[in-house]
Amino acid sequence: MIDARCPKCGSTDYGWDVTTLSDPSDLDRIFKDCEYWCRECSYHETWRSTDSNDEKDQHLDHWYRSAQPPISSEPAAKHLNRCPENNELRSQIIARLGDDTPRREYARWLREQAAEISEHGLGSFPELTQAWRDVHDPIEQAQASALRAAWFVDAQLDVAEALRRDPLADLAHMLVWNNRQESLTTLRAGRVGVSVIDDGLAQLIEDGVILERSFYRGFVEHVTMSARTFLDHVDEVYSLAPIRHLTLVHYTGLLRELAKSPHLDRILSLKLPVHAPHAPYASASDLTDDDVELLVSGGHLRQLRWLSLEDADQLTARTLETLAKSAALPELSYVGMSSYKITTYANGRVSRDHRGDRVADLIAKAGKSVGNAPFIHARQYYAFGAPRKMSRGDHDIDREVVCEHPIALRADVHARAGQPVGAT
């Protein structure tokens, strides 16, 4: 890997991503959206190519050759906020989980601060002066960061509102920033406006308390954690971000404690993968029919709308019967049981190949015992495929689509309850 540096601030702390896409007009034509971003000053570049490996190295070389030395030789303080912060509004956002109003107000307030910075500079923002001291044009960068973060919040709120109305809504026109088409993947990863949105969680991510996080409705709402870490740190995490979506790993032996936790009351989506989310995808947990029944019996998943039980090959039709008959899951609208073949090669490379979703087969085996539970009809109502997938390689129906438009709360779907599977 080339020792690349950001051409704006000289930092070596950068990230990159390559997204493989297909041309809607020519499905045989494959191209790649490539992106590099600086974690210090939020500067980023993007381009499209058909040969990512060669062009990736060339572009990194461009970063290296065009890098400007930092203005200051002192290291910047960690986790400094690069946008103005409004603690009162942030507290309202965390307290009012389902309310878009304080989030819209937060975006509006950021635009006001951007105008203040443009007119009067950074004199009234000592933390921003410190955060941007190592970059050229700090006023311009601070103003741009505030505007970018404001757009980020509004764009994700627009997506959520559109999906509430129609789970098949066209979202592309909502994801344009400075004449550049962004993607749901990019926004959910927080690469636009990230410096203001997730500063409260930065230390927990660095410490390994949070393994992964995703942004919905403008703020971090989804985190991946080990089950033990979640139980030990949940109060701290909930105090810093409006968490409503969870992925829990390494949960074997902890499901009884999890089932009793009132901290699950707010959760809309839950993923319990048997394999850990990072290579080498070692088996991290076991999940059986008894485990699922135990988790549901706790009574703290009444808001659950989306459930993924990935690689849980021990589960049988009994699990679907449990989920379908439970009165403790009134909003459950999607259940996924994707299965993957994990192959580790001698050189350390790991492949993860999708083998299919077991739900349809288990529904067929369960027959009438699952009744006409709403989650049986998920693929009939929801779009399946880009850009609805959570990320590349994910074969679940997108959790945001389901959680913003839960079919279990639709009158037409609810009216079918108790009818034989397949009834219209």
Q: How many helices in DSSP terms? A: 16
The succession of helices and strands, N to C, reads EEEHHHHHEEHHHEEHEHEHEHEEEHHHH
CA(first)-CA(last) distance: 57 Å
Query: For the residues shown, what is the average pLDDT?
Result: 78
**Strand order, largest beta sheet:** 6-7-8-9-10-11
Structural class: alpha/beta
Q: What is the 3D form?
A: globular
Number of strands: 13
Q: Which spans of ≥5 residues are poorly predicted at pLDDT below 50?
A: 20-31, 50-57, 59-78, 385-393, 420-424
Give the number of domains.
Answer: 3
- Radius of gyration over C-alpha positions, nearest whole angstrom: 23 Å
Most strands sheet: 6 strands, mixed
Beta-strand percentage? 15-25%
**Share in helix:** 25-40%
Description:
By secondary structure, the protein is α/β, with parallel strands linked by helices. It folds into 3 domains: 14-66; 87-175; 244-414, no CATH class. The protein has 16 helices and 13 strands. The strands form 4 sheets. Strands 6-7-8-9-10-11 form a 6-stranded mixed β-sheet. Helix 10 (255-259) links the parallel strand 8 (245-249) and strand 9. Helix 3 runs antiparallel to helix 5, helix 11 (289-297) packs parallel to helix 12 and helix 12 crosses helix 13. The N and C termini lie far apart (57 Å). 38% of the residues are buried.
